[in-house]
Specification:
The complex is a heterodimer of chains A (272) and B (294). Chain A is mainly α. Chain A has helices at residues 2-31, 53-60, 64-95, 101-110, 120-129, 137-140, 147-157, 162-170, 175-186, 188-204, 207-212, 221-231, 236-268. In chain B, helix 4 runs parallel beside helix 8, helix 4 (66-97) runs antiparallel to helix 10 (201-228) and helix 8 (159-184) packs across helix 10. Classes of the chains: A mainly alpha (272), B mainly alpha (294).
Chain lengths: 272, 294
């Protein structure tokens, strides 16, 4: 009986894994099929011969290297700034002592229930007035600080013993020196987590870049891909190649640092 | 205990992040609220002299706008069906992976998690072809169990189920990770005691696992619901809201009104309707949970 159950569970686990994985498998193999080969019946899971031409066309004729570059610059830029601003804010909320600190933080947390879409039009108009539409800053600047980011750092910074900060003060360190020399090194794991969240969130985001990048030279990969998919509906293989290029960088980053990502989910789901 | 912090340090450390949050979140929320009472449109965009206060006109127009009700209906369909399905799939996957029979748990967890980290737009495009009525993988597989070809994205009755299926596939890994942690926090003795008393696996699941996971489930349900009310990329890429507006979501309608037709006042009113709906939905979930705990 136990044996039957064991194989049943195992079969189920493998079945779910196969279902989860098949779309990726099909995406990659269709991207290597000659034009039209993926639109056949019955559908093929593997290419009969490998054709790299879709990747070549994407990079030569369809400007994909530019979009890739845009995505990399924007995602790295947003990550860099958000790490600094959020870590300073999160540390201050964890360790500084000033009046109304807790109520200010509670107010920030409770406002997270307001969906971000509410702010889209005013932020767009603001950025337009600042002349930032169709620049990298249009995506980087609004993402430089987030309530979630501050929350994440704060949770982690609580675990730093006050005595370490005390000792640094005794040695005559300024607040800024304490932050740079004591806090940041101790916060390394959570900084990796927050950086990963920011990088992947920015990379995968679609709605905001769609709004602020109207010049096709400034498209990020998801916007370019969505655009391509409406202009080249028939070119299945090329769209699959484009999808592969969009997904692979973020997948590599995730696979390298997955431990930190899972930790971040856990920390984000602890309730006070 | 640390001493009171100097004001200059508070400003230096909190100033930048709070400034950004104020400038790009709180002020825009207030501005959007104000705009929702104006007729801000493409003419006002060119010259603010055309801007007029219209009180509740945007809101009353919305209530008599059939497309608004279509978007509400579609979004509720998505949230009410897709939300519970997602949570159930996550829980099932978590229980499965938590089984003592399974080895290489890390590998399976990783595979289950892959869709979560991939780009919405890219997977939506991939699934558009998986759903292809003639050449798609899904219809091919369904053919083996005798289910005739379904025009997933072309039939208004199937378009929303198709989007729900994609989203469940994409998201179940995220909540699964949280559920696994919740499962590991349930004391083993509870199950041992139940086994001794002869409780079946299903009874144990119902009377131990589910109640013990209740706080986790509430958290996951609320987060999932809030996220699902904001459905956008999938219908934008796969169906553009069609066929026959069967996948037009609130945010997609908001985007079209705001950024395609520049009916800014109208679009911000829509945004606040969404906020109110999310607030009501969240408080209902908390209330239900409280009642259950009696």
């Amino acid at each position: 009986m136990a044996k039957v159950k064991k194989y049943l569970v195992l079969a189920l686990v493998i079945f779910v894994a196969v279902i989860t994985f098949i779309p990726f498998l099909w995406m990659v193999s269709a991207s290597f099929m000659p034009t039209g080969a993926s639109n056949t019946y019955p559908p093929k899971l593997f290419p009969e011969k490998f054709d790299f031409s879709h990747y070549q066309i994407l990079f030569s004729r369809l400007n994909l290297s530019r979009y890739l570059l845009n995505s990399i610059i924007i995602s790295l830029g947003a990550t860099f700034f958000s790490l600094f601003l959020n870590s300073m804010g999160g540390y201050a909320f964890a360790k500084f002592r000033f009046a109304k600190k807790e109520s200010l933080f509670k107010f920030l947390l409770s406002s997270m229930i307001i969906p971000g879409q509410v702010t889209m039009l005013p932020v767009f108009l603001l950025l337009k007035n600042m002349g930032l539409i169709n620049t990298y800053w249009a995506i980087i600047v609004p993402g430089m600080a987030s309530i979630f980011g501050i929350f994440l750092i704060r949770q982690y910074a609580f675990s730093i013993p006050d005595s370490m900060i005390e000792a640094a003060k005794m040695d005559g360190a300024t607040e800024l020196q304490i932050y740079l020399k004591v806090i940041l090194p101790l916060c390394k794991p959570i900084l990796v987590t927050l950086g990963l969240f920011t990088f992947m969130g920015t990379w995968n985001d679609f709605l905001w870049p769609l709004i602020v990048m109207t010049d096709s030279n400034m498209y990020t990969l998801p916007v370019a891909l969505a655009n391509l998919s409406s202009e080249h509906v028939q070119d299945t293989e090329m769209l699959m190649a484009g999808s592969v290029i969009t997904i692979v960088p973020v997948l590599i980053v995730f696979l390298a640092l997955q431990k930190y990502y899972i930790k971040g989910i856990m920390m984000g789901s602890v309730k006070e | 205990m640390l001493n009171k912090t100097k004001l200059s340090a508070i400003i230096l450390f909190l100033g930048p992040s709070l400034l950004i949050i104020a400038l790009f979140f709180f002020m825009p929320v207030i501005a959007a609220f104000a705009m929702s009472f104006t007729d801000f449109d493409i003419y006002a965009l060119g010259n603010l002299d055309y801007l007029r206060f219209v009180a509740f006109k945007n809101y009353s127009t919305l209530l008599s706008d059939p497309l608004f009700w279509t978007a509400i209906k579609n979004t509720f369909y998505f949230v009410m069906v897709g939300g519970p399905l997602s949570v159930a799939a996550s829980l099932a996957a978590a229980v499965l992976l938590n089984s003592k029979f399974i080895r290489f748990k890390g590998v399976f967890r990783l595979i289950y998690f892959l869709p979560v980290v991939t780009t919405h737009v890219a997977v939506s495009i991939v699934w558009r072809y998986i759903y292809h009525p003639r050449f798609g993988l899904l219809n091919y597989l369904l053919g083996f169990i005798g289910i005739g070809p379904v025009d997933w994205l072309g039939d208004p009755n199937w378009s929303m189920p198709a989007i729900i299926l994609l989203v469940v596939w994409k998201n179940f890994g995220y909540n699964m990770v949280i559920f696994i942690a919740g499962l590991q926090n349930i004391p083993e003795e509870l199950y041992e005691a139940a086994s001794i008393e002869g409780a079946s696996a299903w009874q144990q699941f119902k009377h131990i696992t589910i109640p013990q996971l209740a706080p986790t489930t509430l958290f996951i349900s609320v987060i999932t619901m809030i996220g699902y009310f904001q459905l956008f990329a999938e219908p934008y890429v796969m169906t553009q809201g069609g066929p026959l507006n069967s996948t037009l979501s609130i945010v997609l309608y908001m985007y079209q009104e705001g950024f395609r037709w520049w009916n800014i006042g109208y679009s911000t009113a829509l945004a606040f309707m969404l906020t109110v709906i999310i607030l009501i939905g969240t408080s209902i979930q908390f209330k239900l949970q409280k009642e259950r705990n009696g």
